[in-house]
Design goal:
five-stranded mixed beta sheet; alpha+beta; 9 helices; about 30% helix
């Protein structure tokens, strides 16, 4: 069994996706939650954009050329919506964000995703004389974003796309941002395309610097959410360590913190349960996502605790609070890290602020 196949099996057993023999993937509950958080993170990327929400357009990649989007009715509707609903942002340069559905599953050299996919699209309308400058800046910004949310930043690279002889490089540019998994193959996580639009009086905006009306050039970024989600999950599992831990970015982890309790004295079990519920409330109030169900794990056997911590590593939970009878006496507990498998001692009064600062950075 190859390294990547072991990663597929580990992620499937943790409930992130279901995989078939032909490497067709389907997101399960944990995977769908991770995709939702990735989508929210994308929404906050480039915060000055005008958000147009989910469009009614259903895109069929087989019938749509990469550079043909400016002729689509959806693009025209989005432009009109920009001018009407966001007049202060209707000038060059400006950003539009919208989401649509892809009617066909995307396939690449490593895996394919079953069913329709959600496309996260950013249209950057820029001054034509600065189009290439913006295009290169956007490449760099996008690559840095992927590197920051990855457990292995070195696997991402920018790959220029062949335009063919019929397209003028002055009017068209295209690159893919790909995530590499060695001999197993690559996954395209984002496509960037530049199109210099033909002169059209219905698609003109004022230049933010000069006020002169110009025909904007469009730089489009497209992220297929389900494909990107699977690629990042695979990235978090393909870390070369002996353990089966899933190194998800702590901001995107479906569960950010767990609570585990060792009941060495049965007389203290009720008090420890109350303390666990209190910690659960504190963490929820701080905005952190904790495990499902009652929110904490309890055992009287230290070996069961070790097994539980291995399971939390497979779920990608970055930190676990471990308490016991001594915590009731002195307020001290262990904060165990998924990445290092080491624990540090903290006081209960430091829990919300300490963890909040960890996840803020």
């Amino acid at each position: 069994m190859s390294r990547i196949q072991r990663c597929f099996k580990s992620l499937a057993s943790a409930g992130f996706f279901r995989t078939r023999e032909d490497n067709k993937l389907e997101l399960l509950s944990h995977g769908r939650e991770y995709a939702k958080l990735l989508q929210q993170h994308w929404t906050r990327l480039r915060p000055l954009a005008a958000h147009l929400g989910v469009t009614n357009e259903t895109v069929n990649p087989l019938n749509m050329h990469r550079f043909s989007f400016p002729q689509s009715q959806n693009f025209r509707n989005n432009f009109k919506k920009l001018v009407k609903d966001h007049p202060r942002k209707a000038k060059c340069p400006t950003l539009l964000k919208h989401q649509s559905t892809s009617s066909a599953p995307n396939s690449n050299s490593l895996f394919g995703v079953q069913g329709p996919s959600l496309l996260l699209t950013t249209d950057f309308l820029v001054e034509p004389h600065r189009a290439l400058e913006h295009f290169y800046n956007m490449q760099r910004e996008s690559k840095i974003w992927w590197m920051r949310i990855s457990s292995n930043p070195s696997r991402y690279r920018i790959v220029p796309c062949d335009l063919g002889e019929d397209l003028n490089p002055k009017d068209y540019q295209a690159i893919d941002i790909r995530s590499s998994y060695g001999e197993a193959g690559e996954v395209t996580v984002e496509q960037l395309s530049l199109v210099r639009m033909e002169d059209d009086k219905d698609f003109r905006l004022p230049d933010a610097r000069t006020g002169e009306t110009v025909q904007p050039t469009v730089i489009r970024s497209v992220i297929e959410l389900e494909t990107a989600t699977c690629a990042l999950l695979l990235d978090g599992c393909d870390h070369g360590r002996d353990s089966l831990s899933l190194l998800l970015h702590r901001v995107l982890a479906p569960y950010q913190c767990g609570i585990a309790c060792v009941e060495s004295d049965s007389e203290l079990s009720a008090d420890l349960a109350d303390l666990c519920l209190h910690l659960k409330h504190v963490l929820n109030h701080a905005g952190l996502r904790i495990g499902e169900g009652i929110g904490f794990f309890s055992t009287k056997d230290a070996s069961h605790l070790a097994e539980h911590l291995l399971k939390t590593d497979m779920l990608g939970i970055p930190y676990t609070l471990v308490i016991n009878g001594q915590t009731l006496k002195n307020g001290l507990m262990q904060l165990r890290s998924r990445d290092t498998r080491l624990a540090e001692t903290i006081h209960i009064s430091d829990v919300p602020d300490y963890l909040f600062n960890i996840f803020k950075n």
